[in-house]
Amino acid sequence: MSSPNKSIKMSEEEIDKALQKAEKEAEKKDHKKIWVEKMVKSAKTYYKVCPYFDKKTSKCFLSLNNKCNRDGKYENCPVFMDFLDTKYQEFTSKKKILPLDFLDLAQSV
To answer: What is the pLDDT of residues 16-47, one digit of tens each?
Structure first.
């Protein structure tokens, strides 16, 4: 009877390990989401329209001079969010300190 209990304990341990791993991944995504939202909020304090939007030509500097279909509005813009996500990945992969303000991020580019 001890062998069935061991198999149950092994499966419980595996489940616990899987849950811990999933929690760590979710926590990492939460940090990224929080940082991205913080950068967007910070950008709003400095810029009325996207800082990477060219008003004269209506083009986006982030998407390699493609036309901006959002007229410079960067809240929930997929190109701007992807840019911030890429920057987050760069900073975390190099183990650098994340910028606390959008201007710090813009100057590091």
So the answer is: 777 777 776 766 667 888 999 999 999 999 99
Tokens matching residue 33? 């989401």
The single-letter DSSP state of residue 94 is T
What is the token pair recorded at 16? 């616990």
C-alpha distances out from residue 88 to 6, 16, 61, 108, Å:
43, 29, 19, 12
Q: pLDDT tens-digit profile of 39-84? A: 999 999 999 998 888 888 888 888 876 888 888 888 888 889 999 9
User: Which domain, by its residues, includes 104?
Assistant: 2-108
Helices 78-93 and 2-46 cross at an angle (nearest 10°) of 120
In the chain, the number of structural domains is 1
